[in-house]
Design goal:
Chain lengths: 557, 190
């Protein structure tokens, strides 16, 4: 695997320091730069785990129709046009007429829209060849199918039960939304009278479900208990347990069915039955076509100050954003590489006379990391800001965890040593020009220069004089070298946390500009410069140390 | 920074607009194919510009935008259907910054901008892939599928896996431009 750098979001932790990288759980706290957001108000990185998500629009992923939120509920979050999923393989179904196919191949090909269709029509899967005639669903007209299917859905016992539940809770829902001015964000709130009532109903009807206790999760639950008394008991349409016997087999019937199985395919897989809200038949031939669930476009807010970080354009298939505060516009992009691995790869490619676009993911044995050796690695920083920055690196000390675990973790610390450049180094400002210039110039490197560079490095490695410091500066990119010393006992991944601090010129963002551009800090301003500092943690993964025996084996081949 | 990807200068023809087409690729009906510029057609790829709609006159069968890559051994074939008893081919339109991994077969009707298709995929007839979508390696997209913008599809049949990050467009653009820059003639042949 290629070396990688991920960025830390401290959202889940109490301490500002990241967890030790060798803990498997630490990967939850590190993210690729392009998945992160940046809140200017808080001057902090945010990730998909901590941002608040709001739906800004619904659409059908198949017909791409934008569904107004008003009808989303009535249509039960599914497309009400002619979009269906195959219950067998989840491919999109086509509507086909039952007139005899012109040639045997026609059903496979999309002749669906032919106008000489003859009723009855049915739904057909061009992937697994399932069709709805198998389950006795056919249509007189090829239009309005969703409405016809929804009629079935709505008369299903689970749907009726749900409607009854809704009816039962409607008054409380209305009361609670009018009494406490509920903001959209309060859906995060775990305790409101509705959850409390639902929970008490559940606890009564389903054995083993304990009563939901809001007090254990939220302090604000206390005053709500007064509401709970107002809710009368809910009477189910059908007794619990009776549902299992309803056409869904269960018990004896299922046993009988299983006894006479001829192929496994007769039993619907868990995945195929999973989406049903109630007990469903085990039989594959009872599977019904599914209306396609809607998808949504989402806005994202900072969890602490609630400023909007992401706001998509209204149009469902637009990939543009009205507001897009992504970390990549604020923090330098960091990538890491192992020069020795790259050199080995080059040699391999040339010697095998590999053709150009061949895969780059095979790595030769010479590219491996061996225990007991010392390797140089290159870290490249790309500055996204319109002003130059000064960067300083520090390897994070393995933080002894507060508590007893600390000592044990420390003992297991990966046995390698990392040397990073200690001095601060500059990265030039990003300039729009670099993007628009011809790409050849952007990279500014001729092949010959590149080869010289490689040669010099190889020499360095041979003569054992390794450099730790700035290797290269071009455009808004600075490359620095560090080294890693592996002990003989080294095993596992060479992974360490690195603290990156940078100073930048800050201009107080003009709020008007903020909305217009989304990336205010990118704007050079005429105000007197004020230097600011920002630090963030990363985890650098240089790759896995090759076990010795295996390496010998590899070179033999 | 990723290493250069070298190719043999003798193998590739470079056009005025910077397209690089392997001599080992099969370009059928080149007069019906449009390449937007800085697009690479790797060796072994087959592009069927010859499968055109019946009827007189000139017709664009396959159009590719800028900074595209048709990987090694890919087959790009326009979709066809029989409509009102007439068999016909329909044009295939592909936007800018679209990479198709090696060994994939594409019969899509429309592919938007900034789309990544992995290796060994089958993109069925009349598929519509919207902007910034991604198809994972080894995915089979059945005919007539619609892949919405910023969606990752994988599996057989290809299904929605997750939403892609908001910065997908920038990332894909940097990747396709970077690839074109790194795609250089081998120095030994200079
Ligand atoms: Zn977070
Ligand atoms: Zn739909
Ligand atoms: Zn199917
Ligand atoms: Zn904030």
């Amino acid at each position: 695997m290629a070396p990688s750098v991920d960025y830390y979001c401290p959202c889940l932790a109490a301490s500002p320091h990241p967890p030790p990288p060798h803990l498997p759980s630490s990967s939850d706290s590190f993210h690729p730069l392009h998945n992160l957001f940046f809140c200017e108000e808080c001057d902090a990185v945010r990730c998909n785990r901590c941002v608040m998500v709001e739906v800004s629009g619904y659409y059908c992923p198949n017909c791409l129709f934008e569904v107004p939120s008003a009808s989303v509920r009535a249509e039960k979050n599914r497309c009400a046009r002619n979009c269906f999923l195959c219950p067998n393989c989840r491919n999109t179904l086509s509507v086909v007429p039952s007139d005899p196919p012109n040639d045997g191949y026609d059903r496979m090909s999309p002749i669906v829209s032919t106008s000489l269709g003859e009723p009855p029509f049915f739904l057909y899967c061009n992937h697994c060849r399932w069709d709805s005639a198998q389950v006795d669903i056919t249509f007189e007209k090829p239009t309005g199918l969703a409405a016809q299917l929804q009629k079935f859905e709505d008369s299903a016992p689970e749907a009726l039960e749900f409607d009854r539940l809704k009816e039962h809770f409607e008054p409380f829902l209305r009361a609670s939304s009018s009494s406490s001015a509920v903001t959209p964000s309060s859906s995060h709130h775990h305790s409101n009278p509705i959850t409390a009532a639902a929970s008490s109903a559940l606890a009564r009807d389903i054995p083993g479900v304990s009563k939901y206790n809001p007090l254990s999760r939220s302090r604000s639950g206390r005053d709500k208990s007064s509401h709970k008394a107002d809710i009368p008991d809910y009477k189910a349409r059908m007794e619990v347990g009776a549902a299992a016997g309803m056409g869904a087999g269960g018990g004896e019937a299922d046993l009988e069915f299983m006894r006479h199985l001829e192929t496994v395919a007769e039993v619907a897989t868990v995945e195929q039955r999973w989406v049903n809200s109630w007990v469903s038949s085990l039989h594959t031939d009872d599977l019904k076509p599914l209306r396609i669930p809607l998808q949504s476009k989402k806005s994202k807010r900072c969890p602490s100050c609630r400023h909007i970080l992401i706001k998509p354009e209204q149009k469902a298939q637009s990939v543009r954003y009205k507001i897009k505060l992504v970390a990549a516009n604020y923090l330098p992009a960091i990538s890491v590489s192992l020069p020795h691995a790259r050199a080995a790869l080059e040699t391999m490619k040339r010697s095998l006379n590999r053709s150009a676009a061949q895969s780059e993911d095979q790595s030769p044995a010479a590219a491996a990391l061996l225990a007991g050796k010392t390797y140089s690695f290159h870290i490249s920083f790309t500055n996204p800001l319109y002003d130059p920055i000064q960067v300083r690196l520090k390897k994070a000390q393995a933080m002894p965890a507060p508590g007893t675990e600390g000592a044990g973790e420390k003992a297991k610390r990966p046995p390698f040593q990392v040397n990073l450049p200690s001095a601060a180094f500059p990265i030039a400002a990003f300039a729009e020009a670099w993007e628009y210039e011809d790409d050849e110039d952007m990279f500014g490197l001729d092949d010959d220069d590149d080869l010289d560079g490689l040669g010099r490095l190889q020499k360095d490695q041979r003569s054992k004089t390794r450099t730790v410091g700035v290797v290269e500066k071009r455009a808004n990119v600075t490359v620095v070298a560090g080294e890693v010393i592996l002990t003989k006992e080294s095993r596992g991944n060479v992974k360490f946390n690195m603290l990156v601090s940078y100073t930048y010129r800050s201009d107080d963002p003009d709020p008007a500009e903020e909305n217009a551009m989304g990336t205010p800090s990118r704007h050079a301003s005429s105000k007197p410069p004020e230097m600011k500092n920002f630090s963030f943690y990363t985890v650098v993964d240089l790759g896995t140390i090759a076990p010795r025996e295996e390496t010998i084996h590899d070179t033999d081949m | 920074m990723d290493a250069p990807v070298y190719y043999s200068r003798a193998e590739y023809i470079e056009t005025d607009t910077g397209n690089k087409v392997s001599r080992r690729a099969t370009i059928a009906g080149p007069q019906n194919i449009i390449l937007g510029g800085k697009t690479v057609i790797a060796s072994g790829a087959i592009i069927r510009g010859d499968l055109r709609r019946t009827g007189p006159g000139h017709a664009v069968v396959i159009s590719l935008g800028r900074y595209c890559l048709i990987g090694e051994g890919c087959v790009m074939r326009p979709p066809y259907k029989t409509y009102r008893g007439n068999f016909n081919y329909y044009p295939m339109k592909i936007g800018d910054h679209v990479h198709v991994g090696s060994g994939s077969i594409v019969e899509a009707a429309t592919i938007g901008n900034h789309v990544e298709i992995g290796k060994n995929c089958i993109i069925g007839k009349f598929t519509i892939i919207k902007d910034c979508a991604k198809i994972a390696d080894n995915t089979v997209i059945p005919p007539n599928t619609v892949v919405p913008a910023l969606a990752l599809f994988a599996g057989s049949p290809g299904r929605f896996v997750e939403d892609l990050p908001e910065s997908t467009q920038e990332m894909v653009e940097a990747h396709t431009k970077g690839f074109y820059t790194r795609f250089q003639p081998a120095t030994t042949e200079r």
